[in-house]
Amino acid sequence: MLVALITREPTSHHVDDVLQRNDPPLVSDFCVAESSSAIARLVRIGNRTLDEADVLFRDLDLWVSSSSDRLAVDQGDIEMATAFVRRPGITLRAPDAIHIAAAHRLGATLLTLDHGMAHAAAALGVDHFNPAEA
Prior knowledge:
This protein is mainly alpha-helical. Helices cover about 65% and strands about 5% of the residues. The strands form 2 sheets. Strands 1-2 form a two-stranded parallel sheet.
């Protein structure tokens, strides 16, 4: 979701709309790391230059510091994520499970553009919202 917002992907306007209508979102330290990894990947696959990535990293850090409330992922989130990925019938990657577990712990609504992640969150009883589907 943050990568779409920062890189101005076609779904960015959906994310903008939701963020402008609600309180500042909670953004985990893990989400920032994962978003940074996605931006670095854009350079590795040739979709962005190093200079463009530097601007995107700066934009990401600025947006997170000025427009969100930060939270730390904790050991309990990792333990819950481990339990989530071990559940039969739940198709979930560990990073997505960590985001879902943190949202569950906080009683927060998970904002995601990932259909599979939204489906897993629903199956796990975690409130979620995909702005591109609204």
